[in-house]
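Quick illustration, no need to memorize.
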Amino acid sequence: MFNAVMVLTLRPGDAALPLKPSLTIVSLTLSSFRNYDSARIEPSAGLIALCGHNGAGKTNLLEAISLLTPGRGLRGAAFDDLVRSGRDTGWAVSAVLDSPVGEVRLGTAWQPGSGENGEPASGNSREVRIDGQVQRSAGALAEYVRALWLTPAMDRLFAGPASDRRRFLDRLTATFDPSHGTRVNALERLLRERNRLNSEEFQQARWLDSVEAQLAQTAVAVAAARNDAIAAVRSFITDTRQRGSERPFPWAEVIVDGELEQQLIDRPAVQIEDEYRTLLADSRGLDRAAGRTLRGPHRADLLVSHGPRQMEARLCSTGEQKALLIGLVLAQARAVRETFNGVAPLLLLDEVAAHLDDVRRAALMEELLELGSQAWMTGTDRQLFEAASSCTEIYEVSDGHISRERHGFK
């Protein structure tokens, strides 16, 4: 169990040294991963800046770290696409983690033909080891690493399709509930099975009844977990709101716009489950005509509004949307820290400062230092990190090679 740890607030420019984050990667090793033949980095600071030109491999390092959590990482790539070009072997990522439970060694790898049960590997099968022991699934990583990330692809999250926001919501939820990803996968599998059975010319009602019963149970569990996660984040959004509306990263109104999610706010889960199972049975004709299940948590959306301006996020300027997204992720990180006894999550921030003005850039560094996370940031210009240069390790990344440029601690 993680133990509480005090975090010393350090404002940019202060000479004092912040306490070491309670969850840190002290060694990261890559082999045949993306544009890296082999690479190793051993950071010791809370803020880590990876600088280099576009295509140098900065984001690849963040992606490697993201694979130390369940799922397919921050890009969602198939694992066979991660192998270094020209190699017919696989790839591997390993890390030594310094955590409140002590030192932990994590590793994950993919090899052609190394699928489960001796079957040929698909793009989605990988091996995971914890302290040298092979794990049954990548889900075991959730007990050791919680990581949040921001990428340039997320800058238009609020104006993009609902499916993008739903994935963001489910990643958010999984940082609080490690089993959530497994439930979401089960939900998708059951939806496919129901759609297949419902499309058959000669339906077997008994099998459909069974699948729909499982689907209703899983759907309500997914919706309930989303509500719990958003409630946790809202408590820290409220804290930001109380500290004033003129902050660089404005507070947000956040709502899960889903039929089941809304019903669960004031009604018991068992009742919602029974009603959804009945709805599925009654909707077979409509769903068969549509070729899919039309109602359920797989149709939910995450609605976000700019709190101080009372404007839907999708209508805000690009800069305002970026600030809202950063504020939302920071609120999530604080909620995770509170939920897990003071242990802040790892933050992977790809080009996060590139389009921020000087005020917001300095405010971001201050927020990161106060939060106490180990934050990995990328950028093409070292000047982006000057606001916290005294407490940031800066690395030069060039064509798959990493070298320490400067360590700001005196």
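The chain has two domains: 21-146+344-410, 155-339.
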